[in-house]
## 1
Amino acid sequence: MAFYNQIILFAVFYVGLVLVLTFAGSKRKIGGESLFFISLILTPIVGVLFLLTSKPNVREIKHKYFTCKHCGFALSEKKQFCPICDKDEEGKTLIEYKKEYKAKETEKPQQAVSEKPKIEIDQKYFNQN
């Protein structure tokens, strides 16, 4: 009876060690499932060797940012004008755009506002009693 207790205790310890290695392997390149089967079939000692030789699973976080072509300022989102040098991709400032816009507005001839045509309403339709 004591022999069976030792076998059961060994099996519980073995499976527990395999599960611990599986959890540790999930944070590595080898992966938890692969390390589970390696440790279960080839013993946890071989599983530990595979775990130690596997590289950590590093998650790369890529930040997308934009840089101003003129001053090099990094922006988190693309904007029409840089908040530092106040230039767009072409190198024009907002003030230059405003000057160009005003110059175009003054060049346009003022169109005469036409009066709305008067609509004559026949009164006979309203006076029907």
Note: The chain has four helices and two strands.
## 2
Amino acid sequence: MPQSATHEHLRAAPDGADFSMPASTPPASRRGVGRDGGRRLSPTARRQRRAALLFLAPACIMFGVYVVWPILSTIWLSFFSWDGMSDKVFVGLANYIELFHAPTFYTALKNNVIWLAMFLLAPPAGLAVALYLNQAVAGMRVVKSLFFAPFVLSGVVVGLMFSWFYDPTFGLLALMLGHGVPVLGDARYATFGIVIAALWAQTSYCMILYLTGLTTLNGEQLEAARMEGARGWALLWHVVLPQLRPTTFMAVVVTVIGALRSFDLIAVMTGGGPFESSTVLAYYMYDQAIKYYRLGYSASIAVVLFAIMLVYIVYQLRRTLRNEQ
């Protein structure tokens, strides 16, 4: 094409149009683009990533050895019949079939439901105590230490204290009522008596969580709510509790897990009795493994208990993430 025709063609092109030849594009390796389509990391970024992986490696290894591997080995063991000394015998689902036909399993499951229902009183009770203690009053530090005491006591100590409290001959409860009531010796009351003892310690734990959460409240939002006339329950429900949602989530999850894995108070106060009326899944698992050397059957109980806790935790996490989004 003649040069003049070319100039005419370019002159006739629409405004803003570019008919020039595109510049040659350098290859991906020269543009700093990695094989995965992302930008190539700088040496500093690579060193930072390597350092992060090195710092995370010990925790990941310990988590795998002490958490993941025991879970997998317990699931594997639940398909065997083993007394801990002789050779394992593969029995398939026989342990689970026997478990679901055992009356003690349903008694333990019912008691776990009772524990769960009553234990959920601990978060609101802990919040009420935390709101009371979160005041600038003379002598409040002494009161805080008294409410904090149950948290630092071991479960064995708490169990012995309440065993003496419930004693029908010389216990404080008998002195208060004027006559002895065999709380721990009666199948109707044993579970409730143990749960009340556990609530005493769990409430103090929830109180500590809420006291920590109250220190993180947004003061500007509180002042704005007060200026708008919010007082009492309105201030608590619409301003304080929404800011305490992460603390409430932690308190509820820890409380539910504590209710499902309850063991120490039952072992100290009743030993699962009378007539296995106060046993729970965790104690039933221990009883079968330690007393009767049925490690495979005990592992099947552990798997069922783990599945129950896993379902609840996944549900709570999904609910929390949905609320945040």
Note: Residues 77 and 296 are 5 Å apart (CA to CA).
